Amino acid sequence: MTGSTAASVFPFRRVCPFDPPPELAAGPLVPVRLWNGRRAWVVTRHAEIRAILMDDARFSGRMGDPHFPTVTEARVTVDRNERAFVGMDNPDHDRYRRLFTREFSVRRMQALIPEMHAIADRLIDAMLATGPPADLIAAFAIKYPSLVVSRLFGSPYEDHTFIIDCAAARHGLKQTPQEAEVKARALAAYVRRLIDEKEANPTDDMLSRVIAEQVLPGHLSRDDFAEIGAMILRAGHDTTTNMIGMGTLLLLRDPGLKAQLTADPAGIEGAVEELLRYVSPVQFSPRRVALADVDIGGVTVKKGEGLFLSLPAANRDAGVFADPDRIDIGRDNRELMTFSHGIHQCLGQMLARFELRVAYAKLLERLPGLRLAVPLEEIRFKDDMQIYGVHNLPVAW
Amino acid sequence: MSAIVRADRGRCIGAGQCVRVAPDVFDQDEKEGLVVVVTKQPQGEALEHARHAERLCPAQAIQVHAEPIQTKGDTP
Predict the structure, then answer these.
(1) Quick one: CA dihedral A156, A177, A231, A314, positive or negative?
(2) φ, ψ for residue B46 (rounded to 5)?
(3) Best of A88, A90, A101 to mutate (most B CBs within 10 Å, chain B)
(4) For the whole model, what pTM was predicted?
(5) Among A88, A102, A143, A240, which one has the highest count of C-beta atoms within 10 angstroms of its own C-beta?
(6) Are A271 and A360 a contacting pair, CB within 8 Å?
(7) What are phi and psi of A50, to 5 degrees?
């Protein structure tokens, strides 16, 4: 890797809690040093990120590759041991993913909307019964997506603390490799137990359907399903929690924005897309390894070098989104990068979209006086996590 | 202006973005959740939606080919 400037240590720190770190303004490819001293690239421009994600011939997403870059030492273990299709290239990736595409179709996710309304209402009822103030994260943002995904998947809601704890061990920036791997195995073992239970006593949920349609006919092993199930449970929790937390915080800090959305509930779809763009909680994935020397963004990426594709940076690319640091709920967000692009694009993106549309609309409708109960300085941002958001959001109404 | 829409189910990963932005042109089948083209020759707004879907498709499974206007009586 050539270049006279010393490579900065990645990940970078945020200066403003609402914007990506200033180092991501450089690009299109920024050379960095990782936790282990290895060199890697961070890709920060929309066009290059999109091109890499569409170029599976030259950029691999196989997590078992010893060159696959990791943001912490803990991620090395869980990534090398990743057995779900998130860590595979084609043809294996598509073969596994297509066993689940029916479960996550637009129609199937849309059918959950009444359940999402009911869940949101029950949580808000509980908040109203207890009275203000409340921590919106504990009272709503954590519980809501957990209840939705447990209903969809078929896992008992009571296990949500355990599931979130396992997810945090992978998504934190401070875990040891042992902690991360123990929790990854624990979550997969837990799903494996659920599979055995549902096989004996099927109910109306994804677990039971996939057992009947894929496992029993021999298309999918129970162990493989356990790994994929663990991935689904992990992915369905803190991403949405963080979007609800950060999105609500942004609405509460900008009375004009809140008023705009309250006045025009039909604008909720566009508002969700814009909040997804602006918040972009997944910070340090996707990642790729170059399978050949590639000239891109004015540099030569050498075979074997690792790349972090910065979705938050892509979402603030001024060449694609005019005045990108401004929240504009009327913006055309067809170039949204929050869910990534290419074959690994988020499996749950329609679930996430519907969940968020219902959540923000419900909070505004049923808690019209919703406001921050503390100054901004008392909000703890997730600088310690790979998936960004807020740890707390004390509110009153 | 007319156009022919093609969708390659061999590339499709069931993301549903085509359905999200162009429900007048695309659907997902019940069995696998993979793309189905319901309007093969969209026009006007539906054509715009189809082009949007082509850009969005994460698997590059959709192609919208501009075609000369068919005269009456032609079928694709």
Answers:
(1) positive
(2) -60, -35
(3) A101
(4) 0.95
(5) A240
(6) yes
(7) -60, -40
